[in-house]
Amino acid sequence: MIELKNIVKVYPNGTVALDKVNLKINKGDFIYIVGESGAGKTTLLRILHLDEYPTRGEMFAFGKRVDKRTKPYLWRRKVQLAYQDFMLIEDRTVFENITLPLQVKGENYSMLVQRAETVLASLGLRDKMHKLVRELSGGEKQRVSLGRAVISEPEILLLDEPLGNLDMETATVIMNFIDAINERGITVVMSTHHMVKRETSPKRIIKLKNGRIIAKGYV
Ligand SMILES: Nc1ncnc2c1ncn2[C@@H]1O[C@H](COP(=O)(O)OP(=O)(O)O)[C@@H](O)[C@H]1O
Ligand SMILES: [Mg+2]
Questions:
Q1: Which of 20, 80, 128, 215: disulfide with 149, CB 3.0–4.6 Å?
Q2: CA–CA distance, 21 with 206 (Å, rounded to integer)
């Protein structure tokens, strides 16, 4: 459903963040992206979310070429990213933040409430719905950011180290939540440092180092 061909990303300061990355993402895949800090994981996810454009190389999706003419707001109806640094609006409530993708689509208020309640309950945040984001812990903000990415039921879910701020117990709950989403047929691409051990079907894994894919396999 998405294909990256020889993707190179050079930031304006000259840093080569991705170096000839080739990757095919198929419908329903669960793909882990691993590698040390600075390997290029976030850059790869941001390119897939159209926050950044490749310096060289090509991207194809849903049978079409993706480039600067592709409208990000339309793209993000299909592809959502939960950011490593959350990107939440701190002085707005959890409800206002989490329902943003639905507001953009023009959904009505009762739909927003219903979806927010369901998603927050499955993330263990039901009682935080009307709290301001700045009143939350790091782990809670992380889950709100995940909730915002899933609430509009995208076809592809991109997750940038979604377990980074969570204790082991919460991380296990969140991994089960992500697995359940994938089992419904939603494609998941997730960067991570820690793998939570669990009984699921094999997942694809790609390892980045200095912007290059140095290993591909299954875990
Ligand atoms: N906006 C930016 N401007 C310049 N360099 C950047 C920028 N973002 C990331 N980098 C650099 O690109 C490389 C890859 O970074 P990143 O994709 O964030 O890696 P990871 O997520 O694996 O830690 C690093 O060397 C990082 O310092
Ligand atoms: Mg990163």
A1: 80
A2: 11
Cβ of 38 closer than 6 Å to ligand 1, yes or no, is: yes
Instruction: Spell out the domains of the chain, with CATH numbers in brackets.
Output: 27-51+69-218 (3.40.50.300)
Ligand 1 pocket member 108 (CB < 6 A): no
pLDDT digits (tens, 9 = 90+) for 2-22: 999 999 999 999 999 999 999
Encode pLDDT of 164-174 as tens digits.
989 999 999 99
137 with 88: CB under 8 angstroms? no
User: 137 in the Ramachandran plot: left (φ > 0), alpha (ψ -120 to 50) or beta?
Assistant: beta
Q: How far is the CA of 182 from the centre of ligand 2 (A)?
A: 22
